[in-house]
Amino acid sequence: MSYGDDYKFIPATSVGSGVGFDVLPDIYCHTIQIVNICLVGHPQSDDFVLVDAGMPHSSKEIISVIEERFGENKKPNAIILTHGHFDHVGAIIELVEKWDIPVYAHSLELPFLTGKESYQNPDPTVEGGMIAKMSAMFPKDPINLGDLVKELPSDGTIPHMPGFRWIHTPGHTPGHVSLFRDEDKVLIVGDAFVTVKQEYLYKVITQEQEISGPPRYFTTDWEAARDSVERLAELKPKVAVTGHGLPMTGELLASNLHLLVKDFEQIAKPGYGKYVNEKNN
Ligand SMILES: [Zn+2]
Ligand SMILES: [Zn+2]
Q1: Is the full-model pTM beyond 0.85?
Q2: pLDDT one-digit tens code per residue, 209-218
Q3: 196 C-alpha vs ligand 2 centroid, how far in Å?
């Protein structure tokens, strides 16, 4: 297994970095610098999974968060990936080497996780602030997880996540998925939409809560991104845990999602940028 050639530590942080909290009794969200990982399973149980794998060089932090919540030497049954961007797979190799557990992702994301295909370049020219400008340095070469990464079952179920189903939400990446539990309408969104203006350093640092489309510098298909947000809004989630920003719940979530769908062009889609101009969307 190997990381991409451009793998490196990214010096970006937020007030949330190192902080975690219970979203629900069995859903825990922890922020690594500027991205969230999510643990699904009750504290001290043996049955839990890790959703996404943090920033480069964060494996020690992830392991200690897990051992604190579930017990010493505990390991998740699997890692489920919403997608393969560097800030969601940053520590994955150290983790799977330590734990020897499977990783699951959508079939269309596998080329980016098995060393076959690089993501398109992030767009530092996209409308946005300092983080967008910084994105030129973000790794985009594929990691290679070899046989350890497996395709999510085509029937929508998620291994080791009973009650959840995956929903294909492309646009930000081709094989992006969000995870939904019908029983209590909790949605693990990934980057299909986020609750912080991820392109702006100040907003990322302060984690000011504000609905936003997928992080702009990495989003290449805005048409698909909009369809994905609509699909998620139709589920009427009660709780949304996003890849970036604080979780959003209840009426605030409902009204913000409604707004995002209605005004997607204004709120989400950048006014200019490489992937807005290049494509006819
Ligand atoms: Zn992403
Ligand atoms: Zn992300």
Answers
A1: yes
A2: 999 999 999 9
A3: 11
Could you tell me the two tokens for 233?
A: 């809004």
Separation CA 95–CA 59 (nearest Å): 6
Closest CA to 94 of 137, 58, 125: 58
- C-alpha of residue 157 to centroid of ligand 2, in Å: 23
Tokens of residue 90, six digits: 């940053």
Please spell the DSSP secondary structure of 153-185, one letter per residue.
Answer: PTTSB-TT-TTEEEEE-TTSSTT-EEEEETTTT
Ligand 1 centroid to residue 44 C-alpha, Å = 30
pLDDT tens column, 102-122: 999 999 999 999 999 999 999
Across the beta sheet with 248-249, what order do the strands follow?
164-168, 177-181, 186-190, 239-242, 248-249
Q: What are the tokens at 120?
A: 């398109």
Q: Which ligand is nearest to the CA of 122?
A: 1
CA-nearest of 21, 20, 35, 123 to 83 is: 35
